[in-house]
Design goal:
Layout (H helix, E strand, L loop, with lengths): L2 H6 L11 H16 L1 H19 L8 H6 L2 H14 L3 H21 L5 H4 L17 H12 L5 H14 L3 H6 L5 E6 L4 E9 L9 E6 L1 H12 L13 H15 L3 E2 L2 E2 L3 H15 L2 H8 L4 H8 L9 H4 L14 H9 L3 H15 L2
Antiparallel strand pairs: 1-2, 2-3, 4-5
Helix pairs in contact: 2-3, 2-6, 8-9, 9-11, 9-13, 13-14, 13-18, 14-15
């Protein structure tokens, strides 16, 4: 079954004589829409994914026979598919229990629909999937790999660099349009900057927008997507989610990078890399929280602070006497080598200190 291809198709009920079961499903969705537009959109997305996975059909094609054939094992396989896809525990529960609610409703129309046995699931406490973060060198490998692709290499390169620099989720980048990139004035610096404005699906306030400034260097590279003909529509990154996921998997296969220290590597690992870059560069957990669009600082602190080994604690590190003549004794080539072999966070801090020194 080609799940990705089928999921990419939009349900189309125009001109189709819907089966009796599909009519009941669509009516159930209409009832949800009358109560909440957001719930309707979520349920419609959940059911579309579910029926493609289990029956390889769109909602409008579902028959009573399809419903009768669904088993407990099908639901269990679907749950495992969601886990492997990287869905959070809460998200999996939402999808499973949305389907259970539909089965319960269908049972009222046809008592042969056995929802009690098929959905014999309790709400689970799923083990939290702890994703690994890519390091600087791995991000560089990733970008070089994308740059070597034959089809739309700039789009693939810029998509992943955008995730790394902006620290957003992949769905944000996928939905980004050229109208979301605007010019704004920075009152403190007195200059105009480019700002990316977007909504994050994880926010409780679904209408809340995040405004993130981007450097002119990044903006120029984004505009090159238009100039070279790789972006011709409203979307900045004119490729499907499946295409980006496939090319990322190829990168993982080439470098055997599916796990790190027992943690799963996925596209979200780029966002975590971005978080570590900001935290290591500025040492400000609130700045890191804002960068990653976390509503709760507890979540940021849990990931980017955590428990430290004794020799990594600040009280141990800052108590060490530093020989101020040490750097004076280094020759130029050694000093350059030291900087080049440092992480991007160290290089950025040195660059900012240099700018401050020159602007005094």
């Amino acid at each position: 079954m080609n799940t990705a291809k089928a999921l990419n198709q939009q349900p189309n009920t125009v001109g189709i004589k819907n089966t009796e079961a599909s009519v009941k499903i669509l009516n159930f969705l209409k009832d949800k829409k009358r109560k909440s537009e957001n719930t309707y959109k979520n349920y419609n997305r959940y059911y579309s994914e579910f029926f493609v996975f289990v029956c390889n059909k769109q909602i409008s094609e579902i028959t009573w026979e399809d419903i009768f054939k669904v088993t407990y094992e099908d639901i269990d396989n679907y749950k495992r598919y969601l886990i492997n896809k990287g869905d959070s525990g809460n998200y999996i529960n939402q999808k499973i229990f949305a389907c259970k609610a539909l089965w319960k409703k269908l049972h009222t129309f046809n008592h042969d629909v056995n929802y009690t046995e098929v959905f014999d699931f309790e709400r689970e406490e799923f083990e939290v999937v702890n994703f690994a973060a890519l390091n600087d060198k791995e991000v560089e490998l990733l970008l070089n790999f994308m740059d070597s692709q034959k089809y739309k290499p700039k789009t693939k390169y810029m998509f992943f660099e955008f995730l790394y620099i902006v620290g957003c989720r992949k769905n944000v980048a996928l939905e980004l349009t050229w109208n979301d990139i605007v010019r704004r004035h920075d009152n403190k610096k007195g200059i105009d900057v480019w700002v990316v404005s977007f909504k994050d699906q994880k926010f409780k306030d679904k209408g809340k927008r995040v405004n993130k400034a981007i450097n002119d260097d990044l903006y120029v590279k984004l505009i090159e997507l238009k100039e070279c003909g790789e972006s011709t529509g409203d979307k900045v990154f004119d490729l499907s989610k499946e295409t980006f996921e496939d090319v990322f998997t190829k990168f993982q296969d080439k470098y055997n990078l599916h796990e790190k220290d027992g943690k799963k590597v996925c596209i979200h690992s780029i966002k975590k890399a971005s978080g570590w870059l900001v935290q290591n560069t500025f040492g400000d957990i609130n700045k890191t929280r804002k960068h990653l669009c976390h509503e709760s600082i507890e979540l940021t602190a849990k990931t980017y602070i955590g428990d430290e080994d004794y020799c990594d604690q600040a009280s141990y590190l800052i108590g060490k006497n530093v020989d101020k003549d040490f750097f004076k004794e280094l020759d130029k080539d050694t000093l350059i080598s030291l900087i080049e072999n440092s992480g991007k966070d160290v290089q950025m801090r040195l660059y900012y200190e240099y700018e401050k020194m020159m602007n005094k």
